[in-house]
Write a structure and sequence with these properties.
Mean pLDDT: 94
Strand order of the largest sheet: 14-13-12-11-7-10-9-8-15-16
CATH architecture of the largest domain: 2-Layer Sandwich
Number of strands: 16
Bound molecules: nicotinamide-adenine-dinucleotide
CATH superfamily of the largest domain: Dihydrodipicolinate Reductase, domain 2
Number of domains: 2
CATH topology of the largest domain: Dihydrodipicolinate Reductase, domain 2
Structural class: alpha/beta
CATH class of the largest domain: Alpha Beta
Radius of gyration: 20 Å
Shape: globular
Length: 399
Amino acid sequence: MTAEAELRIGVIGLGMAGALMTQVIDQHPRMKLAGAAEINAELRANFSRVRSEPVVADVAELVRRNDIDAVYIATPHQFHREHAVIAAEQGKHVIVEKPMALTLDDCDAMIEAAERNGVTLIVGHTHSFAPAIARMRELIASGEIGRLAMLSMLNYTDFLYRPRRPEELDTAKGGGILFNQVPHQVDVARFLAGSEVTSVRAVTWKLDPRRPTEGCCMALLNFANGCSASVVYSGYDHFDSDELHGWIGEGGYLKKPAHGATQRSWESFADAAQEAQERSRRYGYGGSVSLAAATPKHQPHFGTVIVTGEKGDLRQSPDGVLVYSRDGVREVALPAVTGRPGRAEVLDELFGAVVGGSSAPHDGRFARGTVAACLAILQSALQGREVFLDVHRSRESLA
Ligand SMILES: NC(=O)c1ccc[n+]([C@@H]2O[C@H](COP(=O)([O-])OP(=O)(O)OC[C@H]3O[C@@H](n4cnc5c(N)ncnc54)[C@H](O)[C@@H]3O)[C@@H](O)[C@H]2O)c1
C-alpha cells in the first residue's frame, strides 16, 4: 500500500456505535465505507434506503469480500471475540469496540488470531483517543509536571436509565458500568500512566433493584511506576458531572440540565421488549439519535480527569488542557473541533499502523490490560479485598 492509499472498511453492527462510525468514516480522507453486516432487518433497510454499499445479515459474508481491507466491529460485547477472530482469519485488519471482550481468554484468542494472520488489531476505547487525553500524555512525557503521582477521575451520568436490552443489565453478560463505562476511565488512566496496573481495590453498588447491575463504583488503581488512579463513576441520573464542565456533554456538545429526565423516560416504557425496541429504533442506524450528526462545539470528555505530578497538575478545559504550576496556570489549546474527535483518531491509528507502519498504542495487548483491570475491579468489590495483577508475566493475568 502507498502513502496515498485508502482503506476500505466494513462496519459490523449498525446500532449506536456502528451508525456513528459510518459518519466518521465518510468524513475521513483515507477511509472508504465498503459495506456493512447487521442482523436486524429494520436497520439493514434503513441503511439501504440512503446508501449504495452492500449490507448483509451474515458477518462471514462481509469479511469474505476481497474488496474490504478492515472491519470496525460494533456488535454487543459477547460477540467481539467471534467477530474479531473471523475477520482476522480472512486477513482483515480489525478495530473492535470496547470492551475488547468479557474474559482474558477471549482477549488472548483475538490477539492470537490477529498475530497469526499478520493483521492489526485496535480496540476503540474512544475516550483514550480524545485529543485532550493525547495532549495530556504528551505533556506528561515532556516532563513538565515531573514524576506522576495521582490521577483523579470522576464521572456522574444517566447511564443506567438509557434504554437497554435485558443482558445489558446482567453483569455476568457484560452489563452495567463495569463493562461499559468504567473501561473508558481505566483505559484513559492506563494510557496516561504509561504503566501497568499492579493492584486494585474497589467497591461497587447496585442502588436500584429495577436495574440489577453495578451502577456506581469507586476504585483505586495502583501502577507499576508508583502512580495511582482513583476512578469514580455513577450512572444513576441524579448528579450530572457535566455541571462541572459548563454543561458541555461527553461528546463536546452544549446541553441543558435535565436531572432525572432519563429515568422518568425509562419508567414510561411498558415492558422490557418495548425498551429494547426503542433502544434500537432511537440509537440504531437511521434513528433519531444517530441522525443528530451536528459537529460538536468543544472537545469531548469523559468526566473530570486531574493529573498530578510533582511539579504541576493537568486538567482538561473545554477547548484544551490547563497546566497548573508554581508559575500559575496556562492553557494549551487544541485544534478547533471538526467531525467527531475521539472517533476519527481511532481510524487514524488503524491507518497509521496499516499503511504507515507506525505502532498502534491501543492494540490488543494494551486493551487486554484494561479488561484485566476491569475484571479486577469486579473481583475486588465482590471479595472485599485488594486484587493483585501479575505484570511480570509476559501476559498480564489476574493473580
Ligand atoms: N467507544 C464508545 O464510546 C462506544 C459507544 C457506544 C457503544 N460502544 C460499544 O460498541 C458495541 C456496540 O454497542 P451499541 O451501543 O452500538 O450496541 P447496539 O445494540 O446499539 O448495536 C449493536 C448492533 O449489532 C447488531 N448485531 C448483533 N449481533 C450481530 C451479528 N451476529 N451480526 C451482525 N450484527 C449483529 C445488533 O442487531 C445491533 O444493531 C458495544 O461493545 C459497546 O460497548 C462503544
